[in-house]
Amino acid sequence: MLKKIIVTSLICLFAIFGANADTLRENHVINITRLEEKLKTSSLNEKPLIYNQLAREYLGVSDEKSLRYARNSLNLSVISDNRAEEAHAYYIIGLAYYNLDDFDKAGMNFETALTLEYNNNNPERLSDIFLHLGEVYEQKRNYDSALAYFQKSIETEQKSGNPNRLGNRYKELGDVYYKSGNLKTSLEYYFTALELEEKEDSIENIADLHNYIGIVMLDLGNYEKALEHYLTSLKMMEQLGNKQGQARSLNNIGIVYYDWGNKEKALEYYQKSMLIEEELNNERGLSGSLNNIGIIYADWGQHDLAIDFYSKSLDISKKYGDKIGIAQTMNNIGESYFGMGKHDKALENLLISLEAEKQLGNLPGTAVSYNTVGDIYFKLNKPDLALKYSDSSMAIADSLGLTAVKLSNFKLLSNIYAATGNNKKAFDYLGLYTQLKDTIYNRDFLDQMTKIQMKYEIDKKEQEKDVLIREFKEREKIIKKQKIYVFIIFFSLIVIIFIVFYDKRLKQKANLGLKMLNNRMYTQKNELSQTLTLLGQSEEKYRKLVKNSPTGILYMNTSGKILEVNDKMLEILGSPGEEKTKQINCLQFGPLKEAGLVDDILKCIETGELVYNEKPYTTKWKKKIEVRYFITPIKDKEQKITNLILNVEDITLRKDAETALIRSEMKYKNLIENSLQGIFVLQNNRLTFANNRMTGLTQYTVEELENSRIAWYDLFVHPDDREKARLMGESEIHEKLSEEIRFVRKNGTIRWIQILASPFDYEGKMSQIIVAMDISGHKESESILVESEKKLKEANATKDKFFSIIAHDLRNPFNAIIGFSNLLISSYETMDEQERKNIIKNISEASERTYKLLQNLLEWARTQTANLEFHPKMLDACVVVNEIIAELKPHADNKKITLISEIPFNTQVKSDENMLKTIIRNLISNGIKFTHPGGKVSVISGKKDHDTMICIEDNGVGIDEKDKNRLFNPDFQLRKAGTAGEAGTGLGLVLCKEFVKKSGGTIWAESGAIKGSRFCFTISGEE
Questions:
Q1: Can you say how many angstroms the Cα of residue 938 is from the centroid of all Cα atoms in its chain?
Q2: pTM for the whole structure
Q3: Beta-carbon neighbour count of residue 728 at 10 Å?
Q4: How many whole angstroms separate alpha carbon 102 and alpha carbon 96?
Q5: Is 974 helix (H, G, I), strand (E, B) or coil?
Q6: β-bridge partners, 939
Q7: Are 721 and 741 in contact (CB under 8 A)?
């Protein structure tokens, strides 16, 4: 989530302007006193000028007094017809109203001053009025008009041949383009202004421009350039002794480190900036530092402390009417409320901040607000609203090139689409996020940032070195003077010795002794000098090692008094400086007590053994860190502990990284393990990773899958699909592949799976990540749909067949019945008895045949509509066949055909009795129909697999081979007449097939054209 960092110089324009507005500087007091005294004795014509001068002195100090003096000047100028001072008065009134934020009145007075100045031939004043009119329109966000007036100011300066003020004009153009969102054009004008100011050698303006350029570079995501320009600005401000400029640069450097991710370094710079702002009593600048420090604590989860800093910042912004500062701070307060679980208050503050940014026309701030609100809605499980706000943020960030905002939006959009199940878009945005992040934060970037910081530190050290060298030279001069004094004294002593000790012999002895003494002293001096040099070199070496050590080092005695401490330890302790820190007693220092370090120090003193530990520690700035420390005892010759060395290392980043890594791993592990799709990874067609869902898809445990030594397609892929699966696992095409294959589960069941494969680098090897989705339900639905379509076609064919039979086959028998009946009625009297009997016989046969046709038709229709009841039971096939033979024997006898059953008694079959009788009746009737008189029809039985087989054989006319395969098709009717001219219904065999199928068996025909026919069917013989 993006927090709003207050960047000084451009965003908080008022942080610079009027930094000392509440107090009159000494030179102002002197000038005002002088002018007021002069006013008392001045003439009427002189007063307009003096009033205007007084008004200028009060500008930015007491703008109300400035207005009063300027109006006095205006009134007198009109009376005395002094057009120059009249124009000047209008100009000063415009400046005063501008300082009072009344931009409409400021603009009106500037316009009047402009009209008057056109006639006064004062190009410098004219240029200034153009400049201030541009600033008025800039404040009113009428950027086109602002640009036009700034251009006129530039043209006026160029015509007057006064290049030393052009830099300021080009800088104003840069400001306008920045505020209107055209960052690249803004940067061009800042560099133009910088070039002009460097020609004029205007150090303060150059320093300011480096700061402005740093702000734009930061927005464009060029962090190393931003840091480079901020450090350049800081260095110049330090040379100038400009505390306000130093505070501004320190704050902005902190922002770079924050965006870089080094929050500890950022806090260090924010705190330095804050201390300077407090020293200067500059509340407006202090507001920015307080806000930015609050952001650090919010990121560390200390939201109560963060809101305390935000609230102080907000109070200052409200006091000075800083609308941008108010909007940004309310955004940050909203985020902290959300972190505390106060969602309603969070959204209230964030939406207020968003509306304020929109009204102010602050596009970068609006983009951040949209992103923040979107992130909040996402965390509240409202993805639609989150997407809406993120898209709005993205549109602005794209148009302005706001890299940090785009980065945050890519991450948010990836999370939104992942939550809504749109995995493709989620992966796409995750890729964009990773690509942009790698572009910004690559290793070259980190190296460059470090080099820039080191260059600044080295330059600073060089400056300090120069100061030390100058001090050393001064001391050397003093030492030389002291040596001269010593030499004079020494020489005086020698003279006295010569006067007192006049005896030559004694003098010789004295000289000899003195020479020996001098030699001995010279030798001792050289030895001492060498020893001191070596000691100094050794001390300097170890001093540098200790001072620049990456770990904190503190040397103390057993009473807790600090003897020595290095810079890193000061940084970790959060202490202000070495001298103040040495006043701390380690055994009484609250933070050390709370962290438990005091107990370990006492333990080390008591046991005399090295102590190692890792613990959380809270600095005086309330910053919470993790430290690792060693406490080493120093013992004297008697092994008594005299001192202790405390080595402390800040391991917060490492701990945070470990925690973040664990959270990241857990997050993605949970996502993968709880995915509704199976996910596994292949390397050389061997499965190296599988999620829990794969257990459901294959019934193999994750361990069995990952530890299998065989290829994945041999483990659980259907044999018919293995080649396709193998090729997918070996594919080197850098694109996603999709296939449908079958998994054979451990229990032998088969599932249809949709496979999506994508190549990627896994643990340094080319691999395939596979997403497996169970589509068996979809396949079953397809199968049901196909079967339903087939049944629908069959039903339509049945319907057509049904109506065809009704239309054709029933018509002929009824025509015969009707015809013979009409003949009998009309000619009954003229017919003899035999003719009547023949007609009645024909009517009877036609009626019987029609009845059988209708019966078969109805039974067949019932099988097609699934309304035919099926009641299977165990039956003796021998008994059933004998009953049918007895029923059909009269018909067979008429054709002199023998019916024989060879089925053994108690041949048990399981079937519906009526269906079994219908099957056998139809097949025997067909045998009688197509057998010549004197022939034979036999019924036999046997075994086929586990079923009973019943066959009806005849030695009749047989069936053509081409007709045999179509006998049981309802669309094909064999209308072949029997050997005695018998007609058939065409439905008997079709009905037999349906009943056999219902009983769970099969039916077929075996026949030759000259050897008769054989119809067989199977039926279950088991209970």
A1: 84
A2: 0.44
A3: 21
A4: 9
A5: coil
A6: 901, 952
A7: yes
